[in-house]
Amino acid sequence: MKPALVVPDLSAQDVEDLLVRAVVRSFPRNTVIINEGDDTDSVYFIASGAVKVFLADDDGNEVIIGTLRAGEYFGEMALEPGSRSASVMTAEPTALAVVRIDDFRIFLREHPDFVFSLLGKLIRRSRVTNRNLKSLALLDVYGRLVQLLQDLATQVDGVSVITEPLTQQEMASRIGCSREMVSKILKDLTAGGYLEISRQRVEIKRRLPASW
Q1: Cβ pair 129, 44 in contact under 8 A
Q2: Residues 6+ positions from 77 with CB-CB distance below 8 Å
Q3: What is the pLDDT of residues 92-126, one digit of tens each?
Q4: Which of 98, 75, 204, 97 has its CA nearest to residue 152?
Q5: pLDDT number for residue 211
Q6: What integer pLDDT is reported at residue 1 of this predicted model?
Q7: At what angle do helices 141-152 and 112-138 cross, to 10 degrees?
Q8: What is the pLDDT of residue 3?
Q9: What contacts 24+ positions apart, CB below 8 Å, involve 63-67?
Q10: What is the spatial distance between Cα 145 and Cα 182, in angstroms, rounded to a whole number?
Q11: Which whole-number Å values give the CA distances from 207 to 47, 151, 189, in the listed order?
Q12: Dihedral (CA of 185, 187, 193, 196) sign
């Protein structure tokens, strides 16, 4: 039985057409789906669960690029021959609809409107990459952490909150610093009344200071 897959840029019939070409697989938490440098040839649509996209060195140090959830997809870079540019691991139990790249090309030819959505995604990814490079080059650790908090926050009843807060280690991996530095900054911001942190969420109480 195929899972209930919802992709924002595809109609229900489009999704049915996609699933005809897909193999559905389930993975436990902390399963590596793609290794950086692999020559895999599939596109992965997330039916349920979540994955993290990251880079790592030989010593196990990680930089997390982002988290993808149900309805999102990854692996489309396989449209251009070459090895994978990042690793992907499940962040929780996850079901994926796996489409071989040749079948994905056929799907794109039969659903040309989705090609524009795919191009838009690649453009947004390029913009995010450029912004992250600028952040690493021009901002200090505090500035990068503030930018991350602001990027993660959404408005809920007029309040700026992060409803799915990252761990301090995940924050550190996102901005390229130590967990201890993140912990110290968050502690100071909380003591200053700028943040209120609970297990379920982080609330930004007032405008974060420009420097620390």
Answers
A1: no
A2: 84, 85
A3: 999 999 999 999 999 999 999 999 999 999 998 88
A4: 204
A5: 87
A6: 53
A7: 150
A8: 59
A9: 63/173, 63/174, 63/176, 64/170, 64/173, 64/174, 66/128, 67/91
A10: 8
A11: 37, 14, 11
A12: positive
d(CA 27, CA 4): 16
Predicted TM-score of the model (pTM)? 0.76
Amino acid (one-letter) located at 141? V
- Long-range contacts made by residues 121-124, C-beta under 8 angstroms, separation at least 24? 121/76, 122/76
| Residue with token string 């997330």 | 46
Tokens of residue 100, six digits: 């071989």
Residues in the chain: 212
DSSP string, the chain: -------TTS-HHHHHHHHHTEEEEEE-TT-EEE-TT----EEEEEEESEEEEEEE-TT--EEEEEEEETT-EE-GGGGSSS--SSEEEESSSEEEEEEEHHHHHHHHHH-HHHHHHHHHHHHHHHHHHHHHHHHHHH--HHHHHHHHHHHH-EEETTEEEESSPPPHHHHHHHHTS-HHHHHHHHHHHHHTTSEEE-SS-EEE-SPPPS--
Q: Which two tokens stand for residue 93?
A: 């139990």
For the chain, which residues score pLDDT lower than 70? 1-3
